[in-house]
Design brief:
By secondary structure, this protein is an alpha/beta fold. It contains 10 helices and 14 strands.
Amino acid sequence: MNKKNVLSVKNLNKIYSKNRLKSIHALKNLNLEVNEGEIFGLLGPNGAGKSTFINILAGTTIKTSGDVNVLGFNLDKNPRQVKASIGIVPQEVNVDPFFSPRKLLELQAGLYGIKKKDRITDTILKLVSLENQANSYTRSLSGGMKRRLLVAKALVHQPPIIILDEPTAGVDVELRNNLWKNVKSLNKQGVTIILTTHYLAEAEEMCDRIGILNKGNLVALDSTINLLKRIQTKIVTLVVNEKVNIENQSLNSLNVIDNKPGQLIVSYEKSKLNIEELINYINKQNIKILDISTDDGNLEDVFVRLTKN
């Protein structure tokens, strides 16, 4: 089934001119498409261009050149429709301390020109588990609740796309898990999610596809599974009943990390060696393998390799 794309970016450039002689090329010919209903991760080290990209979509930064289409609306020709199609959850917690969550959401709905009868304030408060705090002062909310209130604000106009900019930076584990539960339930309801993060484990767990930005260039764009497949090195720890003689083996790409009585740790390239060959080699020495554990590497390995100069 071919999913339609909800965001299409072609040859997007952003150049910040510092002065006549110095300029910063924050985005260089960025091309990407985001499909309806997916969770798309945009990763990259600080200064890679992630925030610039989001600010262009939000309408707070003006692109230098290129084409941006959101749900078929062109950013240059239909900026209002583009803005209406996207809900942005910012990094910074910026909510008025003297309003209640309900009042804040009602105000936001007013800003979007949503008629009283069409507002879904209570539904949104329930969705982000703030129904019990609906009428409390915002200043009395915990950090986690304030984060969820930002998500709620982005949902007021029921946009089909939600962008989360580093949503869990500086947030504790419990809060992070809670936020992801919210995001996953939104996604199940058909909302397309775009998130920027530098927590790679988070991206690995959450995202269907990932784009990696480095110094304004898109250095990778693929499904999370395919990106993980790029990691060729596998590390294997074997618990054995005596020391393995591994000196003059002819196993392709095998690298001995540690070999002592009772434990052998090796690494090898998945494309060049099959674990069966290693097991057979050890069995031929009449050595018993008591336990095997493998480490397949993770997104961090891909990330480091792609963003190293």
